[in-house]
């Protein structure tokens, strides 16, 4: 074996499994170097995980040194091998104790190493380092926070924050300051901005969801009024924004909402919204609607949708903006006879997941608006879900977090280390799963652990 060239040894190693390659790396320094050859791990990755890659450009953005790390991470996802750690907040001197229940978690889209968390009825956004597992900064807002979302590289990875007081702000976590604060809907009565006491619901004009992609920001209120904003991120001075569209669905107060912006290329965008509202006792309708637009022009893609166009003077920007009202008739086939607690739109917008209090998760096909799979496995009400192109992560009152396959609806794994109370919020990317519970605990499951983990069955 000592007389064989490196090329011949690499050729021999190409017939080995990942587990055998890791064993060979422990023989000597020469074999350790050869067993890390990226051609070997690229071949193993494509053979094992190519069926999960839907974007053809995925492989173009990879460095040769990443193939082994990616294979290990994906293998750990399937085997459930990960490192679990909790995040602990620094003690803060506050006149009023901050509420504990975690209601919002978002991972940075650039590098994915920063986490933003929000507690119920809180005016604070906590920023965390997922690499060092420690607090980085706390953002103080002027009113209760309804939602947060990170931008991508083109939007300079800013943090968009929606507030109950009919406002949204942009926070730059590199400069650690607010760079934009804007009223969402002008000329709103005070009783719509401030929620009556002890109702348990956000105000009618509360910004409940935000989605920041490139230079576009979508906001939606608790009464399903959607606004799409154009952000001027290239100017040297303060960031300005212009309202492109207002899409009013005229729905009653909804229990849960989700919204997603998508860049279809050639400056053609789409905004998708899914909502669940109780229409009868123990009967919830789940709606899904998508509108495409290019600048100030809306593109009608559904024959059943009509547009009413009107011109409104936007006094905040001192320009005349064209605002659109969307009054299309909605298909109402998507329904659940139990309470819907959460909704998530898949990145391809072809699927919507809903969690119910009967311990199930339903996968809805947005084209047919019919159920594709019903997922069974939780022993408590499903309180939160998150979805990507090939899997769903869910949290439940049974204090567990589970990972499901979008392809066949099977439960792939239940993450180790249960919460001490019901899970209230969950998010994930290729490396981490982060979940928060009703007692304020935030847990991080890190799947990018030591490469020798593939030796474990």
Quick one: how many beta strands? 31
Give average pLDDT, whole number: 80
Largest sheet: 5 strands, antiparallel
How far is the N terminus from the C terminus? Answer: 29 Å
Approximately how much helix is present in the residues?
10-25%
Cα-atom Rg, whole angstroms?
A: 24 Å
What are the low-pLDDT stretches, counting only 5+ consecutive residues below 50? 303-332, 451-457
Helical/strand content category = mainly beta
Strand content: 35-45%
Shape: globular
Keywords: Repeat, WD repeat
Protein name: F-box domain-containing protein
Domain F-box: 1-44
InterPro entries: F-box-like_dom_sf, F-box_dom, WD-F-box_domain-protein, WD40/YVTN_repeat-like_dom_sf, WD40_PAC1, WD40_repeat_dom_sf, WD40_rpt
Give me some keywords for this one:
457 residues; mainly beta; 31 strands; disordered C terminus; WD40_rpt; WD40/YVTN_repeat-like_dom_sf; WD repeat; repeat; F-box domain-containing protein
